[in-house]
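Quick one - inputs below.
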Amino acid sequence: MAVTIVRLLAMLRHEYGDPHWWPGDTPFEVAVGAILTQRASWRNAEISIQNLKSSGRLSPGALVACPVAELEELVRSSGFFRQKARYLKAFSEFVVSAFDEDMERMKTRPTEELRDELLELPGIGRETADSILLYALGRASFVVDAYTYRLMGRLGYGQLGDYETVQAMFRRSLRSRVKDMSDLHALIVIHCKDKCRRIPDCPGCVLDRVCPSKRK
DNA sequence: TTCCAGGCGC
DNA sequence: GCGCCAGGAA
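Output:
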């Protein structure tokens, strides 16, 4: 019997404490971070965020008005900067046209509806859409990533199924508690970068006693 | 499943 | 040079 998701959360919290994940002054800043950190370290995405801030471009209106070449330079540190500049443009245009430049207005709409619309945008797939919903808007939309599959696989969950299936499993287990869902995704990332790497570093792992894949 | 896209640190 | 990095699209 594999460790429960609730117990997994408790064990990771005990080990790593509050992950204080995704700092950001506004929902828009969080959403921009979600796009910039795709296949890029948060460290490098953060540099781009600072560039956008200090140049006064970190708002939907300012990004729509920003020339593409300039935007590309501002987000260069995040890698894939040509695509990401386009993605930021498209997302900003969406916020401007559908929500009058104010992401707070997204909060008046149902989660599933928002998710479908986000998925229509170029460069926003399920992970990014759920990151925006969870961390920018506080919706109960768990973020499933490669680390999630790796960790749960090693913990004995077997074949996990497709993205939405895994997401539903976490949402049920955590009873849609947004704080728990936010923390657990963050803690999974932290733990997998630290210990449950591609080649695992099992000695000293906090999950040792509940992990059937441990190597001694 | 496979291809794609780049900066950064070592 | 080489591997890593909070994925998306075909």
